[in-house]
């Protein structure tokens, strides 16, 4: 009738091992979530910079073929390329068109080596402007 109450040392060690593994997995999941939120914030900032650059292209100066680069917030490298858009339709009479169509491409990159292998956002649009006659 010598009956002991309580837990043995082995049971306590197993319980602590299970607890440690569970906490490790939970911390890894939360850490991945925080990292993903940070990356999403960087992409959002890059898209805002690209949209801003695209919107102001052709506002301060007339559109013409050009390329410009710069750095925003000491982190985001940007490049704006403006080039004439080439029509591909064979039956299109381009002499009758009184407007010019320009292709605007904005690339914003960031990361360790932003220009080589970092993350980047690229936006492209077309803008129509009056031809100078």
From TrEMBL:
InterPro entries: N_methyl_site, T2SS_protein-GspI. Keywords: Cell inner membrane, Cell membrane, Membrane, Methylation, Transmembrane, Transmembrane helix. One of its GO terms (biological process) is protein secretion by the type II secretion system. Signal peptide: none annotated. It is found in: Cell inner membrane. Its main location: membrane. One of its GO terms (cellular component) is plasma membrane. It comes from the Bacteria. It is a single-pass membrane protein. The chain crosses the membrane at residues 6-27. Belongs to the GSP I family. NCBIfam families: IV_pilin_GFxxxE. This is General secretion pathway protein I. It comes from Methylobacter tundripaludum. The lineage of its organism: Bacteria, Pseudomonadati, Pseudomonadota, Gammaproteobacteria, Methylococcales.
